[in-house]
Amino acid sequence: MTMSVYLVVKVVHILSVISWMAGMLYLPRLFVYHSTVPPESESSALFTVMERRLQNGIMTPAMIMTWMTGLWMAGSAGFFTDVWLVCKMALVLLMSAGHGFLSRERKAFGAGERLHTQRFYRIINEVPTLLMIFIVALAVLKPF
Ligand code: HEM
User: Fold this and answer.
1) Which one of 2, 29, 90, 131 has the lowest number of neighbouring Cβ atoms within 10 Å?
2) Is the CB of 59 under 6 A from ligand 1?
3) What number is the average pLDDT over the span 25-47?
4) Residue 23, domain extent
5) How far is the CA of 70 from the centre of ligand 1 (A)?
């Protein structure tokens, strides 16, 4: 393996991360708006389509690419025994659980259910932001 292959994989990793994070930050924001419209309305149906296309068309493929490229780099550079990577992977697992949680919420919205208040979605909107800050800091600074 040459260094350039590693760097090309890193480019794909960063592009995948950007696409996944765009959705992780925006989908709960769509839920904030979605929770203000009646379940049977035309707007609700439109939000449902927007949410499904965002998650199935962009976020899920981007999450899979993020994992594949990240694990490949970790293996080829021998990072698996580094504490920063173990911490990073734990936070990425939480982010992936958040992705699953948003999927469940999205399906409930689509079925006309309103599981939580608008305030709830405003609060959980901040969780991916916080996780992202720590994950990027660990990846770049490698403090331990
Ligand atoms: C379990 C999934 C992931 C694994 C195994 C992983 C692993 C890695 C590895 C091994 C590198 C290369 C580090 C280097 O060459 O110095 C890297 C780079 C990077 N990762 Fe991840 N990563 C994952 C998910 C993520 C996520 C979710 C984010 C952001 C939210 C992220 C952000 C970055 C950034 C910004 C870099 C570039 C760091 C640099 O080159 O200085 N990664 N990742």
Assistant:
1) 2
2) no
3) 96
4) 3-141
5) 6
